[in-house]
Amino acid sequence: MPSPQYLIAHACFDCRKSFKVTPRPDFTATCPSCGGQLHEMGRSFKAPPAKDTEQWAKVQALYSAGFRFFSYRSVDAPPLPAKLSEVEAFIHNNPAHPLRVAAPNNSFKPKPLRGSA
Ligand SMILES: [Zn+2]
Question: Please, which domain of life does this record's source organism belong to (predicted)?
C-alpha cells in the first residue's frame, strides 16, 4: 500500500472536484465522475467548493499558466492571488515565480465566466 504522504491532489476542471491520487510515471489519472483527465495540482492544493466557479476558474488559470500548488512559505515570493480578477496581473508581474514550475499550456485555460468581461 502506498503511504498517504504520496497522495497528491488532482483536479477535474469540468466537475470542479479534487481527488487524492498517487502519482505514477506514464499514468494519466482520470476523473471518477466524468472520465476526463485529472490534473496534478500539487501537495498544497486546497480545492474550492464545487459551486465556487470563480475560484475554480482562478486555479485553472494559474494551472494553465504553469503554476502548481506547493508550500512556498520558505521561499521569498508573493502569495498566489486570492481572486480571479487578480490572476492576469499576477502572472504578468511574476514571470519567474517559484511556484511556476511548468510550461504554460493554454489548452487548459478556463472559458470566460458567464456575465464577466
Ligand atoms: Zn470530472
Answer: Bacteria
